[in-house]
Structures are given as C-alpha cells and as structure tokens.
Write a structure and sequence with these properties.
This protein is an all-alpha fold. The protein is built from 7 helices and no strands.
Length: 146
C-alpha cells in the first residue's frame, strides 16, 4: 500500500456507498445491519396515539404546577433573610435561595428527560413526588395568615 492509497482511504468511511446517516461508521458495523435496523425501528418505539394527548395534557398541567412552585420560591425568598451581617453566612444563604428557586424547573426537566419512553404512571409518580418535596414552605405561613 502506498502513501497515496492511505490518503485516499482517509477520505472514506466504511459504508459510504450507502447515503447519509444510514451508513456504518465503525469498522465493526456491517452496512446491512445499519440499513436494516434504522428507519423502521424508530417509529415502533414511540407511544401509541391514544396515550399521547393524555400525556401531553398531564405534562402541561404539571409544568404549570412547577412554574407555580418556582414563583412561590421567588416570593418566599423575598420574605426571608440570613439574619446576620457576616459575609460567609450571607453568601451561603444567597446560594441556598438560588438553588431553591431553580430546583423546581430542574426537577421537571430531569423527570421529563429520564421518564421518556417509560410508562405514563412513572412520569406522574416522579412529578407528584417533586411537587411534594419542592413545596415552598416559607410561603405557606403567609398564605395561611392572609
């Protein structure tokens, strides 16, 4: 093999004869395996059309609830303070307020990401657990007294 052959070989991938993303990209892959398994299998893993509207509706409702939690934590952190003038406790308090505010959107996004393709009941369970855990406790006394 000459240097010229090596240069020409560097511009080609295994499976280039098959167009686009369907070709094999690793030497161990067979072109027939990649072509046979790619287009038809993707559509079969998606949930059926009967569960999609219910799933979308519940996801939107839980999204609104988690948005309300985020707003509640924003309001709740406005009514509380560290109670000291020292620098380190103030910095730690501000960081804790920040994490409390972003916890609800993070829980919602993480749950949607990791329950993708799982049963709807698993997603509902994790989202319900998040609503209970992330409840803005500093706002609750204000709601009771108002």
């Amino acid at each position: 093999m000459s240097v010229r052959d090596d240069d020409e070989e560097a511009f080609h991938w295994a499976g280039d004869e098959v167009g686009g993303r369907e070709g094999a990209r690793l030497p161990s892959e067979k072109v027939q395996d990649v072509v046979a398994g790619s287009p038809g299998d993707v559509a079969s893993t998606e949930p059926g059309p009967q569960s999609r509207p219910l799933s979308s509706l519940l996801t939107v409702l839980f999204g609104l609830c988690f948005l309300a939690l985020t707003v509640g934590w924003i309001l709740g952190t406005g009514y509380t303070s560290a109670g000291t003038g020292q620098l380190l406790p103030q910095v730690l308090w501000q960081f804790a307020e920040f994490t409390a505010i972003i916890a609800a959107p993070l829980w919602f996004g993480t749950t949607l990401r990791f329950t993708q393709g799982k049963p709807l009941l698993a997603r509902i369970g994790w989202l319900t657990l998040g609503l209970g855990v992330l409840l803005p406790w500093p706002v609750l006394p204000l709601l009771v007294t108002a």
